[in-house]
Amino acid sequence: MIDSSLKPFAAKVRLAVFDVDGVLTDGKLFFGEQGEALKCFHTLDGHGLKMLQQAGIKTAIITGRRSTFVEKRASDLGVDFLYQGREDKINALNELLETERFSMDEIAYLGDDLPDLPVIRRVGFGCAVINAHPFVRQHAQAVTDNHGGLGAAREFCDFILEAQGKLEPMLAEYL
């Protein structure tokens, strides 16, 4: 579990940003007959993004690769902002901030590799998945217990919701 001493940072979050490969997927790429890269997403992670949105928190994806599968997944989940083909993730985030009113303190980011690190270090709540590159884990505020593509995004989402006092009421709706 993410260290509870970080709840004050997560309590401020109004925008949660996610990498894809290694975060919303396990990082493996499977190639189809036509050369398309196939990706596997976990439903637990997807529901976490939906819960953030239900709680009034905007969601974004910034990914270095382009994929119709990511576009479809983002659309299915109702992700507010999608930036694909962007290795320069901090520049993509800055572009988003040119049109949307968020301060860096109000942004959370979950990543796994070196292109994610500039964003992880700038935002108010910068996290890495447990199977992230060691250098990225070393510089993140928090590291998930779950692996990317296997519940790490849900853990991140639940932590934000819990820090804002929104998780328990949302869970109670299912009882």
From TrEMBL:
<comment type="subunit">
    <text>Homotetramer.</text>
</comment>
<feature type="binding site">
    <location>
        <position position="19"/>
    </location>
    <ligand>
        <name>Mg(2+)</name>
    </ligand>
</feature>
<feature type="binding site">
    <location>
        <position position="112"/>
    </location>
    <ligand>
        <name>Mg(2+)</name>
    </ligand>
</feature>
<keyword id="KW-0448">Lipopolysaccharide biosynthesis</keyword>
<keyword id="KW-0479">Metal-binding</keyword>
<comment type="function">
    <text>Catalyzes the hydrolysis of 3-deoxy-D-manno-octulosonate 8-phosphate (KDO 8-P) to 3-deoxy-D-manno-octulosonate (KDO) and inorganic phosphate.</text>
</comment>
<dbReference type="GO" id="GO:0046872">
    <property type="term" value="F:metal ion binding"/>
</dbReference>
<dbReference type="Pfam" id="PF08282">
    <property type="entry name" value="Hydrolase_3"/>
</dbReference>
<dbReference type="InterPro" id="IPR023214">
    <property type="entry name" value="HAD_sf"/>
</dbReference>
<dbReference type="InterPro" id="IPR036412">
    <property type="entry name" value="HAD-like_sf"/>
</dbReference>
<dbReference type="GO" id="GO:0008781">
    <property type="term" value="F:N-acylneuraminate cytidylyltransferase activity"/>
</dbReference>
<protein>
    <recommendedName>
        <fullName>3-deoxy-D-manno-octulosonate 8-phosphate phosphatase KdsC</fullName>
        <ecNumber>3.1.3.45</ecNumber>
    </recommendedName>
</protein>
<dbReference type="GO" id="GO:0009103">
    <property type="term" value="P:lipopolysaccharide biosynthetic process"/>
</dbReference>
<keyword id="KW-0378">Hydrolase</keyword>
<dbReference type="InterPro" id="IPR050793">
    <property type="entry name" value="CMP-NeuNAc_synthase"/>
</dbReference>
<keyword id="KW-0460">Magnesium</keyword>
<feature type="binding site">
    <location>
        <position position="21"/>
    </location>
    <ligand>
        <name>substrate</name>
    </ligand>
</feature>
<comment type="similarity">
    <text>Belongs to the KdsC family.</text>
</comment>
<dbReference type="InterPro" id="IPR010023">
    <property type="entry name" value="KdsC_fam"/>
</dbReference>
<dbReference type="GO" id="GO:0019143">
    <property type="term" value="F:3-deoxy-manno-octulosonate-8-phosphatase activity"/>
</dbReference>
